[in-house]
Amino acid sequence: MEFFELKTQYRRIEKQIKKSIESVFESGSFILGENVSLFEKEFAEFENAEGCVGVASGTEAIQIALQANGIGKGDEVITAANTAVPTVSAIECAGARPVLAEICIESYTIAPEKIEEKITEKTRAIVPVHLYGRSCDMKPILEIAEKHSLKVIEDCAQAHGAIYNGKKTGTMGNAGCFSFYPTKNLGAYGDAGAIVSNDKKIIEKAGMMRAYGEKKRHESEISGMNSRLDELQAAMLRVKLKHLGKWNDLRRKKAAFYGKLLEKSGLALPEEKSSAGHVYHLYVARAGKRDLFREKLLEKGIPTAVHYPKPVHFHPAFRYLGNKAGDFPNAEKACSQVVSLPLYPELPNEKIEFACEKIIETMKQNPNSFETK
Ligand SMILES: *Cc1c(COP(=O)(O)O)cnc(C)c1O
Q1: How far is the CA of 170 from the centre of ligand 1 (A)?
Q2: Which residue in 153, 237, 292, 348 is a FRET match for 31, CA 20 to 30 A apart?
Q3: Going by CA atoms, what residue is nearest to atom 14 of ligand 1?
Q4: Is the pLDDT of residue 107 over 80?
């Protein structure tokens, strides 16, 4: 059993992928051609957004979305203390100072009631992270943003197609930022990312910023950079986008299967509220003595992973933020207990059954060790 693999999926779409690559080579156009603009149109449609700009990575999507919203040097941007490091790197790359906030232990997403205490006169934006494929509780976050005139840049790198109260994540704030890193729900065969927005001005600005600030070739209107999505990745992403809805459904079904089989296991399982259309980028449970639990499972042939072993403020690179151990008890607890179980659309149900059997066996063989409830 593998924690994750892409080969099965590739075998199923191999012909279409190879055809798409060939068509790019035949066209002779490799940068900002037809595939990029068609992918942008198709992905905007999928996410119910007015527009989309393809960029080179999820990290740069966040950086550019912040900058296109006027955020930079001297500004503070609030995000979750348990996020993937790139969220924070992107805030820094935009020139702003990241400010960490506590999370809810049930949802693993930013705790709306902990945001206001982090707001200073320098705060300009909130970056809610829809971690593991589950939307943040956006209603109170948007209300706080409105009250304090803050921008909301959603980190949707793990939430392609996720829904909150009928709305797609990425369309509720000022911009939504996606990563197409190969293991994401929609993954390229290399690095890629995108920004979506309902604000045409933001789309136009981000579109210029990703290509030297140019509106027309050889005419830079604003400061920019090179963060282009390339034609090859766009062509392959167009093939895979057609399957994304179905793949997300499969992830949900497999997550529900885990939920059923592990209901009485004693592990804390992902909570799905009706307001949150979870797309299960990851299936994350919590166990006490997590590292020992993982070792025992691996001995029985069940590979697991940890997303993420350390909260942001425990990384040497972010010591300068001045946070210390104990500042974010929920984020710290989550990082010490979370364990991701194998989950991807092609994962056979028999393997989930096998994994759950071994998990329950492990719990029984080690009483009062791994339970979290
Ligand atoms: C993957 C990821 C990113 C960064 O995306 P890249 O394409 O690797 O730059 C940002 N935020 C979160 C939450 C992610 O999971």
Answers
A1: 14
A2: 153
A3: 157
A4: yes
